[in-house]
Write a structure and sequence with these properties.
mainly alpha; 3-stranded antiparallel β-sheet; 3 strands; globular
């Protein structure tokens, strides 16, 4: 995670906790939570207090307290149904975040503050929402009180001056973290990555160009992959050779950079393996695959990184080592069971390996949690492909 300079350390800490909760929800929890809970639970844990022997959760974030007192809160039916928060403007977003925190605090700790317990009801409600049931119907199926009465209880809860939180013994975990100061050019490429590097986005593209001029490894690796995808082989190899020289000079690359390097070599290997490849390119497939594998291996030495595990599985599938491909596939799907991109890649690789039931399992997991958009369309197409392949094999 990268944060900008801020004199208020408390703001930085809350932002880090908030965003880390999002990371956990999206990478570990196999449920696509509704926006109100996704933001509410992140705000709930953002104010967590960690001491030597205990952890305390339940404090109100200052921003939530301010918005609730100055702007008010959303009715629960509006909160639960909202999907596009920031398109409504900053004032609405502040109201939404405050309301999401309040509702989450209420369903999580309301029973400790003299209100009925809705913990189990909320769990059912969230599951139904994740399955595509609209907020009103999901609420009626989960709670035994009308939405209007629930809103009244939350409003009453908002007037409590000292809501009780909960403390528990501090777990025996390593909470050490490293803080690095990064260069201006590295910040430029990180912001460009978040915004999306595209010639159509002038802001991010200018930052990307700035990082290239400063020889930032990620920017060079990104360009190498895009050149390889466009069949600009000489340009891709030029950038990859630049990165190899950096390695020889002792420059360390992060996981993202190594993944792009691996992907660029994989793309070159696929080009070399194509029917229309000419010598000497056609003779370099195995070299490129070895270099791709080396980049993946270096990334995995740094730490578990799903994209490089996916690329490793793809590598083993291409060279015909089914056992190792399935081992990699199992590793990244178990590590990140809610990562839909990873599940989609797992399904594609499993189909190539004719492990159709495993592919179907991953595709059905996507369809269970996502109900519209490209994920659904792609998953359905792959399920149809599985049926066709199974018929052809009979």
């Amino acid at each position: 995670m990268i944060v900008g300079p801020d004199d208020a350390k408390e703001n930085i800490r809350q932002t880090l906790f908030h965003e880390y909760v999002h990371f956990l929800l999206h990478s570990v929890i196999p449920i696509n939570y509704a926006p109100w809970y996704n933001e509410g639970i992140a705000e709930f844990f953002s104010t967590m207090i960690i001491r030597d022997d205990f952890v305390y959760v339940g404090r109100a974030p200052e921003r939530a307290a301010y918005s609730l007192s100055k702007i008010g809160f959303l009715k629960m039916d509006d909160l639960f149904a909202e999907k596009k928060v920031w398109s409504r403007g900053n004032r609405f977003a502040a109201k939404f975040y405050g309301s999401a925190w309040l509702a989450t605090h209420f369903v999580t700790l309301g029973a400790r503050n003299g209100f009925p317990s809705y913990y189990r009801n909320t769990a059912k409600f969230l599951k139904l929402q994740s399955q595509g049931v609209n907020a009103e119907q999901a609420f009626d199926l989960s709670f035994d009180i009308p939405m209007s009465d629930f809103t009244k209880q939350v409003k009453k809860y908002s007037r409590i001056n000292n809501r009780e939180g909960v403390s528990f013994p501090r777990p025996a975990i390593n909470t050490d973290y490293q803080i690095d100061t990064i260069t201006e050019s590295r910040m430029a490429i990180e912001v460009a990555k978040v915004k999306g590097i595209s010639a159509d986005n002038q802001f991010s593209y200018d930052l990307y160009q700035k990082a290239l001029q400063a020889n930032e490894p990620f920017a060079i690796a990104y360009r190498a992959l895009r050149s390889a995808e466009s069949n600009e082989v000489d340009e891709a190899l030029g950038d990859l050779n630049t990165l190899l020289k950096m390695t020889d000079d002792g420059v360390d690359f992060d996981n993202d950079t190594l993944w792009y390097i691996g992907m660029a070599y994989t793309q070159l290997a696929d080009t070399a393996a194509s029917e229309d490849a000419l010598a000497p390119m056609a003779d370099r497939e195995s070299e490129f695959r070895e270099r791709a594998f080396a980049a993946n291996s270096r990334s995995n030495e740094i730490g578990m990184f799903v994209p490089t595990l996916v690329n490793a599985a793809y590598h083993y599938q291409k060279i015909g080592d089914k056992e190792k491909a399935m081992t990699m596939l199992k590793a990244f799907t178990e590590y990140s069971p809610a990562n839909y991109w990873a599940l989609m890649q797992a399904a594609i690789i499993a189909i190539e390996l004719e492990e159709f039931e495993i592919a179907k399992k991953h595709l059905q997991s996507i369809l269970h949690n996502v109900h519209e958009g490209e994920w659904v369309e792609d998953a359905q197409e792959l399920l149809e492909l599985i049926d066709e392949k199974k018929k052809a094999n009979k």
